[in-house]
Amino acid sequence: MRFASINRLGKDFLDGHLVFTEPYNETLCFHRIEVVTKNAVVHHFKLYDKSELTDELKMYMRMAYQIGTRKHLDRKK
After folding, report:
1. Rounded to 10 degrees, what is the CA torsion of 21, 36, 17, 25?
2. How far apart are CA 55 and CA 9, in angstroms?
3. 42 backbone dihedrals φ, ψ, rounded to 5°
4. Residue of 29, 6, 27, 31 lying closest to 17 (CA atoms)
C-alpha cells in the first residue's frame, strides 16, 4: 500500500503527503488534510528547509509507514 509520496520537488521546497486511516487535525505538520475514502486520509506537507523535518513529522512518517506495511491491522486483533 502506498503510504507516502513526493508530489513535487521545487527549486526551494519539497511537497509531499502521507496516507493515514484517520485524520490528524491536532498538528501543524500538515497544511491540508483530504479524506479520500473511509480508510484513506491524505495529509499534505511542504518543506522549505531540512530543519522543518521535525521529530513530530518523522513520527507521522513512521506511523504512515506502519500503515503502508499494514502493521496497524495487527494491533487491532
Report:
1. -60
2. 22
3. -90, 130
4. 6
For residues 14 and 51, give the distance between their C-alpha atoms in angstroms, rounded to a whole number: 13
| 6-34 per-position pLDDT tens digit | 999 999 999 999 999 999 999 999 999 99
CA–CA separation, 7 and 43 (whole Å): 12
Contact criterion met (CB below 8 Å) for 48 and 9:
no
Torsion angles phi and psi, residue 36, rounded to 5: -90, -50
Cα-Cα-Cα-Cα dihedral sign, residues 1, 52, 60, 21: negative
pTM comes to: 0.86
The three three-digit cell numbers of residue 50, written as one number: 531540512
